[in-house]
Amino acid sequence: MEQPERVARLLVSCPDRHGIVAAVSGFLAESGANIVAADQHATEREGGRFFMRMEFVLEGLRERHGLLERDFARAVAEPFQMDWRITPATEHKRLALLASRDDHCLLDLLWRWRRGELAADIVAVVSNHPDHESDVAAFGVPYHCVPVPAGGKAPAEARMLELLVGTDVVVLARYMQILSRDFLERVGVPVINIHHSFLPAFVGADPYRKAHEAGVKIIGATAHYVVEELDAGPIIEQDVARISHRETVEDLVRIGRDIERVVLARAVGRHLDDRVLVHENRTVVF
Fold first, then answer.
1. What is the per-residue pLDDT for 1?
2. DSSP summary character for residue 13
3. Active site residue 131
4. What's the whole-model pTM score?
């Protein structure tokens, strides 16, 4: 098994043209790196957008990281007009969780993190209610209650932005407040949300009752990046469960919560592992 301190990930997005894979592979080979995983995708057979994710092993990665980036930019990235980054596998992202009264996604992510399933440093939980303070304290994570009273969204978001300084990703673990455009612009990092359905079905209040009344045969959940338009951001992960006429509304809620937990955990894990590239309003997930 490879030592994590020797492993790095390279993510690339650029206009598609001949020779990209050869140039990247050749550069890494000349640098003494060994490619251990590679994925690629092009939006068109010719002339589209090209995406690639590689994992490679390099002796002395910590000491050589800066020089490797400089040389890659000059030799490969600039000629191919690449958006790119090289991230050491041991470089954990700083993650903050936002939650309201529902705790199933919040506690699931904290549990997975404690078990080492999420390669992140969870630095804070922020909630508009005090309900989960004792549960979160058991995981050794700071808990901040920031109420959002009627007419008080702006000062509440200002306080939240103070608490989120230095984070690399924010996860809405069933945070039931709509974030303003100003907040999204100022937070400056990706924000991941979990939604209770295959968007945009049964939006709004009491979705499981609406689904039950409509006699649906599947229910699901969607994890996506947050953009200004509500529930319209690039989708990272989705899943469903089959149901029948025998399930009650309460059954749908229970099943739906299970799906939400799994879908959000998958989406967060893939983001943390640098497996998601955004193209327009879609994602390429390797």
1. 53
2. E
3. no
4. 0.91
